[in-house]
Amino acid sequence: MMRIRMLLLLSVVFTQVFAQQYSTAAGIRLGGDIGLTLQQQVAKNITVEALLQQRILHRQTTGTLLLEKHFPLAGKGFNLYAGAGPHIGHWGRRNPEANSNNQLLYGATVIAGLEIKLGKLLLSADYKPAVNIKGGWQTFDSQTGLSARYIFIKKARPAKKQRQPIHWPWQQKQA
Fold it and tell me: Domain residues for 10?
């Protein structure tokens, strides 16, 4: 329930702050984990991505906030991207020597991948290594993932200005 509240809060904040100028996409991410992804464009070729992921085998839930730079490739809508950011979460371990069943984890994450835009759909494949400073199943964790996001707020395009004819003083008006 807490995860759903966190995702709703992030989506409301991003939508309210950036809805007038930037595009927003949300969807799912599949790989070593299963999760939700929310991506918000904050500047030209710069996005912020929030990930909420559940690692089923290791009973680990992680929230990650990434700042990503997009590099256009062969055509509009096909990008290479890279970024980094912090992650925080909790994991449960079944160790009789542990004082608690749920342990806090946090660390740093980097990401690199390819993204293609098909209409209102963003498809991406990425590699996402992470270093857990505290907690987690292991200190270094890496995963590959596939994401499918739906663009639900499109960047507004400015209206084209109509050119007005120039009336020079020496031109005569024809009646």
Answer: 2-153
| CATH code for position 97 | 2.40.160.20
Q: From first to last of the 175 residues of the chain, give the pLDDT tens digit.
A: 555 544 444 444 443 333 333 589 999 999 888 999 999 999 989 999 999 999 877 778 999 999 999 999 987 789 999 999 999 998 876 554 555 556 899 999 999 999 999 989 999 999 999 999 987 778 898 889 999 999 988 766 666 677 777 777 777 666 5
* The 3-state secondary structure of 79-142, one letter per residue: EEEEEEEEEEEEEECCCCCCCCCEEEEEEEEEEEEEEEEECCEEEEEEEEEEEEEECCCCCEEE
DSSP state of 164: P
Q: Please give the C-alpha separations between residue 68 and each of 11, 16, 46, 95, 112, in angstroms, as whole numbers.
A: 18, 21, 6, 37, 9
- SS3 category, 21: coil
| CB distance 25 to 152 below 8 Å | yes
Task: Identify whether 162 is part of a domain.
Answer: no
DSSP state of 172: P
Number of domains composing the chain: 1
Residue 167 belongs to some domain of the structure: no
